[in-house]
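Supplementary notes for students who missed Thursday's class. We covered one full example, reproduced here. Read the sequence, then the structure, then the short commentary at the end.
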Amino acid sequence: MTFRPSLFDPKLFKIARPAIFALDSETGHRMAISALKALPSKGARSSASRPGKLAIEVAGLNFPNPVGVAAGFDKDAEVPDALLGLGFGSTEVGSITPLPQSGNPKPRLFRLVEDKAVINRMGFNNSGAQAALTRLEARGNRPGIVGINIGANKDSPDRIADYAQMARLMTPLASYLAVNISSPNTPGLRALQDEGALTELIDAVIEARGAAATQSLPPIFLKVAPDLEPADIDAIARIALDKGLGALIVSNTTISRPDLRSHHAGETGGLSGAPLRELALQRIRDFRKATGGAIPLVGVGGIASADHAWERIQAGASLIQLYSAMVYHGPGLGAQIAAGLARLMKRDGFANIAEAVGSE
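Structure (token representation):
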């Protein structure tokens, strides 16, 4: 089957979806990356990614609209400009680790079609820092916000040192650095969310960022899990504020299992998509309360429509990100949601997105 770039239109993607879903999930994902590579690398960017009433400033960065691509879709920084050209206001590549790693054994990515969900246990599979650096350096001075999500190698004897190394390497090329300590698919990684370990980690990343060969220092975003206790939320919020982080990305996949209908429901790994929506929304509210609105939040998890995005923004998210919804609707969904947000903002009488943040 030829997967033409035009199929990224949500309506056309819906027609092609049965043929795409006949393939295993990981093959389908690679086809999407290949199709994005086929898009023109130069030319006019989508009107949805040009500054306007949807523009918002977060951590000193000017986002043309609040709809971004979550980490995990473009693991190796292969198609950031193609995604921006489809109308996303930003994209986050990675997670990228210092050394290449193959990740967990296949199969490791599962569509839960009946639940509009995905389970993955990918395990930070990526081609490593050097391959990503080569691609990102080749972008030159192209416009657009490209965050770089950094991680640690599974077998690393010193994971904090891995994050520090990645921060030093990626600082000159990142619009922002996203520190991912919330994947459930690298054993022991979520332990870095504990207060003492998190403080040590953030200090190491800040120091490494300062040692990078660049005068412009990108803000640091921290990506957290949805499976947190109230005390964890308070501790993370306190550290984020104390260390001057640029934003919190709320949240990664969940290890919980709400009622699911798919025969893949018993697979191990992180659950994303529609079943995560309410939990991720509640975590935005929790972190909004814990931080007093003093640090920007990025809402991720189960967002598949403009209404979902608007709900997350009104709960306290300055930005939102998509991934699993694109499995079911295609990467053209970003521009569709951005257009819907513009209508909702006008309907509810807000002059700009910033006014709507936390307005519920």
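Commentary. The radius of gyration is 19 Å. Confidence is low (pLDDT under 50) at residues 1-5. If anything here is unclear, bring it to office hours.
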